[in-house]
Amino acid sequence: MPADFIRVTRSVALPPDEIELRFSRSSGPGGQHANTSETRVEAVFDVEGSTALSENQKRRVVSKAGSTLRAIAQDERSQWRNRELAVDRLVEQLRRALHVERKRVPTKPSKAAKERRLEEKRRRSDVKKLRRTSS
After folding, report:
1. What is the pLDDT averaged over residues 46-60?
2. CA distance from start to end of the chain
3. Which of 4, 60, 91, 111 is deepest in the core (most CB within 10 A)?
4. Domain containing 56: what range?
5. What is the Cα–Cα distance from 20 to 90, expressed in whole angstroms?
6. CA 60 → CA 45, 73, 98, distances in Å?
7. pLDDT (tens digit, 9 = 90+) per residue, 58-102?
8. How many domains does the structure of the chain reveal?
9. How far apart are CA 58 and CA 47, in angstroms?
């Protein structure tokens, strides 16, 4: 794997050319700099057109997050920093969409655990009995 690939998970690395970057002017108050420079970055990733994902991975991502992933960054004044933020956010979205939840294996409480629980209930019952007023 070449060094310029973007690591998503242990098994998935994206080539940077699969992420489309769009630039525009940031919204909000600004001034001379913000009103003229295109520092807002939108990173777009086409899941179905990707060569980095297997068919199974593509299906999982499309079902969880859709066929196109988008991330926008306009936090910083620097276009370069916003580009890094947008790509990081996109990679995090992809990582979450690829995540497979482990299946829960149901278990039973041990005999000792049941005994401890019952013993605690008995103790508590005794404490409450002592608090009662005798009539």
Report:
1. 89
2. 83
3. 91
4. 6-100
5. 11
6. 15, 25, 6
7. 999 899 888 899 999 988 888 899 999 999 999 999 999 998 889
8. 1
9. 6
For residue 53, being part of any structural domain is answered with yes
Separation CA 53–CA 51 (nearest Å): 6
The answer to whether the CB of 75 falls within 8 A of the CB of 82 is yes
CATH number for the domain that contains residue 33: 3.30.160.20
Question: Beta strand pairing status for 40-46 and 19-24?
Answer: antiparallel
Residue 3 pLDDT more than 80? Answer: no
- pTM of the predicted protein model: 0.70
For residue 21, the SS3 value is: strand
Please state, in angstroms and rounded to a whole number, the distance separating the CA atoms of residues 91 and 7: 8
Q: Give me the pLDDT at residue 32, please.
A: 65
Give the per-residue pLDDT at 13.
86
Q: How many CA atoms lie within 13 A of 32 on its CB side?
A: 0
Q: Does residue 131 lie in a domain region?
A: no
Give the distance, in angstroms, between the CA of residue 51 and the centroid of all CA atoms in the same chain: 22
Rg from Cα positions in the chain: 27
Q: Is 135 helix (H, G, I), strand (E, B) or coil?
A: coil
The whole-chain average pLDDT of the chain stands at: 87
In a domain, 110, yes or no: no
